């Protein structure tokens, strides 16, 4: 666990925001959680992480799938059960690491929170880099559809266009990203661009990415976008561009509901996953896997193990 003064301070700050709202802005009664705004409710839901209950309850190394974890090539991960906040498995979960296009989770979230879905966004010269992008100069999209293009195909120029539209310029948008990260208690995170292109000042940790994902997936529109396998992105002029989600687990893993792939040579192959089975939703941030295919295979191994753990936990606690 991360017990640094900064981590403790930000965790306390997140709790203080909610406590202050309950006691002041949202009333003084003890049953006022329904008076929190949606953003505060989501923060409250993700704020609890527990790394002690499962080891005290179960012998994790006896659960089917445990023996495969030591063979994974991923350099860092964190696997969490959403409803309980229990950490099922972790490796280097609080280390600063470059995160490639997992950055776009924050870009998509802020675009939804601060943008108008029907705003028109044109691809202008200042955002047209043509690096791992499919949008083209002078094309125009509605904001909502451009988020689909960014999140499903990991379009880098779409990310820049959204950032410029929401923030006025990329620099200010990055300030908004970092403000949101601080609000969520992501103390091992700093954003330096909206798309995750190589930059040593753009980094996070598995723990922080799990926090971000759990928060973002509580936005129903965000969850619908990242859970979409195929989508026809309409242009303003009436044409369409077909896109297929780069997250192979949506096509191959039972119960997968999202959420984002990432790759640079610096970051390695990354995947933020969410899957639901048997009343449990698991979140997995996996960083630095060896290859594009291994990030999916290793994520599936971890998720399978996680569901086995929660099944054993349910069985044990129901008696």
Structure in words:
There is one protein chain. By secondary structure, the chain is of the alpha+beta class. Helices cover 42% and strands 19% of the residues. The protein has twelve helices and eleven strands. It has a five-stranded antiparallel β-sheet with strand order 2-1-11-10-9. Helix 5 (104-114) runs antiparallel to helix 6 (143-153).
Approximately how much beta-strand content do the residues carry?
15-25%
Task: State the shape.
Answer: globular
Widest sheet: strand ordering: 2-1-11-10-9
Distance between the termini: 30 Å
- Structural class by secondary-structure content: alpha+beta
Average pLDDT figure = 89
Stretches where pLDDT falls below 50 for ≥5 residues? 1-31
| Helix/strand order, N-terminal first | HHHHEEEHEEHHHEHHEEHEEEH
Please summarize the sheet with the most strands. Answer: 5 strands, antiparallel
Tally of individual helices = 12
In which range does the helix fraction lie?
40-55%
- DSSP summary, beta strand count: 11
Taking all Cα atoms into account, the compactness measure Rg is 20 Å
Short description:
The chain is an alpha+beta fold. The protein has 12 helices and 11 strands.
